[in-house]
Amino acid sequence: MTRSLGGSELAATIRHDASVAAAALTEMGIQPKLAVVLATADESTAWYVRSIAGAAKRTGILCDVVDLGPDATTEQIHSTLVDLGHDPDVHGVILQTPLPKGTDLDILREAITPDKDIDGANPVSLGRLIAHLPAFAPATAQAVLALLDFHDVDLPGKTATVVGRSTVVGIPAAHLLVQRDATVTVCHRHTADLIAGVRSADIVVVAAGIPGLITAEHIADGAIVIDVGTTATDDGELLGDVDAASVAGRAGALTPVPGGVGPVTTALLLNHTVDAATTQSARRRAEKTMKLVGLPGND
Ligand code: NAD
């Protein structure tokens, strides 16, 4: 019997905590605000951004969607990100992918101010995360760990395999698992024997973006499987990377798609925005006090 590791209940708890913290900040005159920068005509991305904006509103967080259109250049997106970094009313910034062909994602990620980098996209955030320094983890990778914790999956001493090595999902998920004392293997498109790499794992995290990539032959009896993959079909259906029918009965537990990692990721983005607003407002208050008492500030 394969247990379903749903994310809706956990997501609701995280959103509730974020809404309580957002209300407390608003009472103090600080309105938490998120900006989502978008440059695509892709309908599934537009749907995802609308769902973040709706969830933010319900949580008491302002959300500006900055839609630069599918012809935006690296320079235009870069200057938008720099402006948002300087805007004291904006606390969290997300750069939504996919971006227009020819734009330089590496340069753009670096333009997100680390304090506002609530989806851990700037390489500075990833470096700090790996060095155990305070930073926002990429929300999807954090959602994987949050789901495992919520469903009481023990990590120390366990073997885990992550399929996918992107810097936004696979690599940070692997690092978070290592930090939690699991022994981790990372597989990717050049892995010679994917079945061998996955079949030995107690915990399997799949983030490849290939529907149905993982079937029963990849999975050890009783393994816990977290399916991060979300591929939208032309009919608007969302497909995971795991063939759920195939692994049913073999896996000990599996996250559903949709309704698993996705809602937790969105909730964590809101939670990070509130945390960013709290940190930035505390720092501004401290800088003001330093100026009042004549100590050197940061400007
Ligand atoms: P990506 O394209 O950047 O990376 C895909 C990774 O999969 C690469 O490292 C590649 O080497 C690996 N891969 C490709 N083919 C493979 C194969 N045959 N065998 C083994 N590995 C293979 O994608 P990404 O941004 O990391 O996203 C991965 C998936 O997660 C996508 O479906 C994406 O939509 C989804 N996603 C979901 C959420 C969420 O909140 N649920 C958030 C972000 C991404």
Short characterization:
With 299 residues, this protein is α/β, with parallel strands linked by helices.
Low-pLDDT ranges: none
Q: Strand share of the residues?
A: 5-15%
Bound molecules: nicotinamide-adenine-dinucleotide
Rg, Å, rounded: 20 Å
Whole-number count of domains: 2
Describe the protein.
By secondary structure, this protein is an alpha/beta fold. The protein has 2 domains: 25-112, Leucine Dehydrogenase, chain A, domain 1 (Rossmann fold, 3-Layer(aba) Sandwich); 139-261, Rossmann fold, CATH 3.40.50. The protein has 10 helices and 11 strands. The strands form 3 sheets. It has a 6-stranded parallel beta sheet. Strands 3-2-4 form a 3-stranded parallel beta sheet, with helices on both faces. β9 and β10 (238-239) form a beta hairpin. The longest helix has 32 residues, at 261-292. The chain is globular. The N and C termini lie far apart (60 Å). The relative contact order is 0.16. The mean pLDDT is 96. The structure holds nicotinamide-adenine-dinucleotide.
